[in-house]
Each structure stands twice: as C-alpha cells, then as structure tokens.
C-alpha cells in the first residue's frame, strides 16, 4: 500500500546515520547561502549565488506513513545553481563486500522551475585504488510544476576494500530557481 512519497519505513539494514533527518548539528559548505539548520549527520552544500532556506517539518502518519522524525524542506531562490545533501560520516564499515544494496530517497517537488538535474549518487573509494560511483541522473530538459516519488539508484554490489562510502542527493536548477522540495527518509537498503 502506497503511503505517500516520504514513507520509506525503516529500510532493512540501512547504514545511513540519522535517516529520520532529526537534529540540528549538521553543517553547510559551498559559497552559496543557507538559512535554517541541517539535520545531524549531514552536510548541505550550495553553489555560489544560490540561496536555500531549510526547515524540518515533523513527519505525520497521514502524510508520510509514519511519525518518525522529520522531513527536510528546501526552498531554493535567487540564482541558478546546485544544492546537495550528503551524509558526513563514511558508512563503509557498515556494509560488507558482496552485499547487494539499493539507494533511495523520497522526494516531493511543488512549484518547480528550471530543474535540470536530479541525482542520487553512491560514492566511495577502495584501498586497491579507484572509485565506486553509481547513481541515477536525470533530466534532459527543465522540469517545471510538481513531482512526487522515490528516487532510486540502480542496485549495487558492495566491492571489497572500501575505505569510504557516502550517498548524496543533488539538485540542479537553471534561471531563477523556484519550488519547494521535501525530502523524506534516505536509505541504502540491504537487498541480498
């Protein structure tokens, strides 16, 4: 039963820190402006010229399928650019080589203008050299209006010798950015 775009209820084996997006001790980076607080365990990055206003509305059973924690609401404005949210602590020690994982992040967008990129990326490094980088990237033309669903990256088999691992959601907008973006609970679910 579909319970709203934000209802990824306790994904199995989710190693992400604070998937309930609670707390206020997260950090910001980049040359853009951030107003509001970032959930604990995450960093919010904004490019030069862009401004993002963040709030953390409480989750509700009616809207989200559970009342566990908060959603993160992002309202970009001022100038074209990119914003990104990433877990701050590496999660490589919480996954095992050979596991199959699937990244997902519920997202609802209303009143969007100029959305030219929606990316959900798993990024890591290996002691044997090289990077792991898998994800879902969209779109080929600007999206306007509303969108609601769960962004998913392809299933991924954890390689041996991981030395770092993170997951991020990145949104790119052209022109004067507009819209309200509501992010639900992120997950890097254990599939097999």
Structural class: mainly beta
Counting H and I runs of at least 4 residues, what is the number of helices? Answer: 1
Q: On the 0-100 scale, what is the average pLDDT? A: 89
Tell me the strand percentage band: over 45%
Q: State the major sheet.
A: 12 strands, mixed
User: SSE string, helix = H, strand = E?
Assistant: EEEEHEEEEEEEE
Rounded to an integer in angstroms, the radius of gyration calculated over CA atoms is 16 Å
**Helix amount, in percent?**
under 10%
Q: Count of DSSP E strands?
A: 12
Unreliable runs = 1-10
Q: How is this structure best described in words?
A:
There is one protein chain. Residues 1-10 have low confidence and may be disordered. 2% of the residues lie in helices and 53% in strands. It contains one helix and twelve strands, in the order E-E-E-E-H-E-E-E-E-E-E-E-E. Strands 1, 2, 3, 4, 5, 6, 7, 8, 9, 10, 11 and 12 form a twelve-stranded mixed beta sheet that branches.
What's the SSE blueprint?
Elements: E1 27-29, E2 33-35, E3 42-46, E4 51-55, H1 61-64, E5 72-77, E6 81-87, E7 100-126, E8 131-138, E9 143-152, E10 156-157, E11 162-183, E12 187-190
Parallel strand pairs: 1-3, 2-4
Antiparallel strand pairs: 3-6, 4-5, 5-11, 6-11, 7-8, 7-9, 7-10, 7-11, 7-12
């Amino acid at each position: 039963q579909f319970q709203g775009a934000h209802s990824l209820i306790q994904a199995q084996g989710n190693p992400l820190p604070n998937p309930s997006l609670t707390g206020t001790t997260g950090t910001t980076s980049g040359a853009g402006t951030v107003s509001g607080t970032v959930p604990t365990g995450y960093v919010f990055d904004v490019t030069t010229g862009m401004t993002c206003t963040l709030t953390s509305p409480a989750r509700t059973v009616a809207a989200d399928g559970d009342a566990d924690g908060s959603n993160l609401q992002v309202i970009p404005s001022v100038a074209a650019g990119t914003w990104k949210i990433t877990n701050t602590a590496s999660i490589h020690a919480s996954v095992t080589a050979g596991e199959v994982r699937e990244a997902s992040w519920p997202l609802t967008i209303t009143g969007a203008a100029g959305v030219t990129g929606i990316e959900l990326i798993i990024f890591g490094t290996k002691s044997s050299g090289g990077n792991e980088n898998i994800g879902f990237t969209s779109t080929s033309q600007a999206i306007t209006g509303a969108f609601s669903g769960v962004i998913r990256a392809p299933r991924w088999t954890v390689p041996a010798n991981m030395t770092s691992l993170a997951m991020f959601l990145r949104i790119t907008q052209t022109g004067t950015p507009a819209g309200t973006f509501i992010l639900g609970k992120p997950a890097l679910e254990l599939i097999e």
